[in-house]
Amino acid sequence: MEFSYMTRQENIKRLKDEGLDLLVIGGGITGAGVAVQAVASGIKTGLIEMQDFAEGTSSRSTKLVHGGLRYLKTFDVEVVSDTVKERAVVQGIAPHIPRPFPMLLPIYDDPSSTFNMFSLKVAMDLYDRLAGVDGTKYANYTIDREEVVQREPNINQENLLGAGVYLDYVNNDSRLVIENIKEANDLGGIIANRVKAVSAIYDSDGIINGVIAEDGLTKEKFEIRAKLVINTTGPWVDKAFELDENKSKIPVMRPTKGIHLVVDEKRLSIPQPTYFDSGMGDGRMIFVVPREGKTYFGTTDTDYHGDYRHPRVEREDVDYLLKALNKHFPKAGLSLNDIEASWAGLRPLIAGNSSSDYNGGGANTGKVSEESFTYLIETVDSFNENKATREDVEQAISQLKTARMETNLKPSQVSRGSSLDVGADRLLTLSGGKITDYRKMAAGALKLIRKMLKDYFNVDSKQIDSKKLQVSGGHFDATNVEDTIEFYKTITMEKGIPEKRALDLANRFGSNTPRVISYAKKLKAGNSTLDLAERLSLYYSIQEEMTLTPVDYLLRRTNHILFHADKINNISEAIVGEMAKILEWSDEQKEKMSEQLDQVISETELNYLKESKQKQLIG
Length: 619
Prior knowledge:
This protein is α+β, with helices and mostly antiparallel strands. It has 19 helices and 19 strands.
C-alpha cells in the first residue's frame, strides 16, 4: 500500500481536518507498536514523528533481540521469563526480522567474571526452560577450552576455561520499526514523519485534547485534535513538547549513551555473536557480532546530558571499546583507523528505579550470602530435574539475603523497566523499556486507552490478540521462515537478479518481496550505475516506506552506511540522483541532500576523530 511523500502530504491534511481518537507522538518502536495495535483495534489513530521513523533510539541499539541471560546472575527470573517469551512473540509477528543466532559466552578463571562454568550452566539451563527451547536444536551446551580456541583462534587464551553456547537472536531494529509503521498505515492509521509536536492544546477543563504541530519540511504550524494523546518519545518524554507540569505526570528520564563500532571481518573475524565481561572492572559486558562481512561491537553505558537529537561517538568511547576488544582479541590490534562505521544512541532509562538493567548491566551489586546462594542453586537443580516448581524457585529468590546494596547507581544500574503514566490532564506517557518488550508495552497501554475512550467518550473499540498481529513483511508462517525466504529469493532471481542480491531483498522485505520486484516494470531504462536489486529496493522504499532523504534509505531502510562503508561511495551519488528524479528535486534540493548524506557518512566513519588524531601526531 502506498506510503510515500504524497501520502505524507495527504496525511498532514487529514491530521489538520479530522479529529482523532488517539494521537501518538513519537515514531520509534514504542510509538509504532502502540499505533499498529490501536488501529487494529478500530481506534482512529494518528502518529507523528519529528525526525524520520526510528531515527532516534530505535535505530541505534545493539541490533539483537536478546533474552538477557545475565539477569539470572542477579536472579531476575521474572525479567528473563518475560523477555524470552516476548522475544518469541516478536519473532512470530515479524518472522523476517529477528533470526536465531546462538551466542558464545567464554569463561575465564577470573574472580571478577560474571559467571564461572558452573553458574553459567545453571543459568543457561534455567534460561532454556524459561524460553521453552530445552530439548530442541537451540538447547544450550558447554564447550571446553580447546573448542573455544578452534572456533575463535584470535581469542585471548590466558586463563580461558571454556564457554557456554545459548540461543539469542540478531535483529534489524530500524526495519522492525518501519514494518510496524507500514502495517499501521495499511490498517488505516494517519501517519507522518518529520512533524513535530510543539505544544499541547487543552480544553476549558485543562484536559489535553490535541497539539500544535510543525511540519519539518514547510515549517507550517497547525492543530491536531485528539480525544487522547500518548507521549512515546523515548528519551524525550520529559522534554517532548511544552506541557503544564502541574497537570502532566511524566517520569524523569536519565538517558545513557551507548556506542557501537564496525570493522571489516578481515580485521576481526568471529563465527558467531560473542558476549564477554569488559575486563574493565565496571560490571559491563560487551557484545561482538558478525554481520554482512563486518564485525561490530559494543556497548558503552555513560550518563548523557548533550543534544538528544545528535549524540556522537567521542574519543573516550572509542578508547574504552578498543581497549576491551584488544584485551579479548589481542592478535587483532584494532585501532581508530580500522573503524569503518559507528553509531551512538540513547537508552530511555527511568531515573530513580534501582531494579535490574534491561540491557544487561549490573543491577544489584550486593553480595549474596553463601547460605542463600546454596539454597537457590539446590532449588534450581531440583527444578531442572522436575522435582521443584517455578514457584519454589521464585520463593528461593525472594529469600535471598544481601550483605549490602549500593546507594549510588551507576548508569548501567538504572532500570530498563517501562512506565505507563496518566497525568491530571489525561496525557498518557509510555516510557522506558526496550525493543524486545515493545509489543507487551503497547498492549498494556492499549488496555488503558480502550478503557479511557469508553469511559470518557463512549467510544467502543475491539480487543485484539496483539501476539498474532503480524507486521508488514511478516505475513507468513513463522515456523517456516527458511523455506519462505527461499521462495521469495527464487522469484526474485527470476527477474534476473543474482542469488546473493535476491536473498538480500527477500530477507529485508519478507512477504513484501513480490511488491518490491513488481516495480521492475515501472523502472525506466537509463544509465543508472545502480544494479536492479538496488533500484527496486530504493523505488519501493520511496513509494511504500515514506523515505524522504538519501540518509533515510542508506542508514535506516537499509544498513548500507553501517555495514557497507567500503561500497557506499560507489552508490551514494547514484542514490541521490535516482531520488532527485523520483521526488522531482530542484538542483538546490539535490545539492542539499548530497551534502547531508556526505556529512552523515563522514561522521559515521569518525573522520572528525581520525583527523583530530592526525593533527595531534603532526603537531
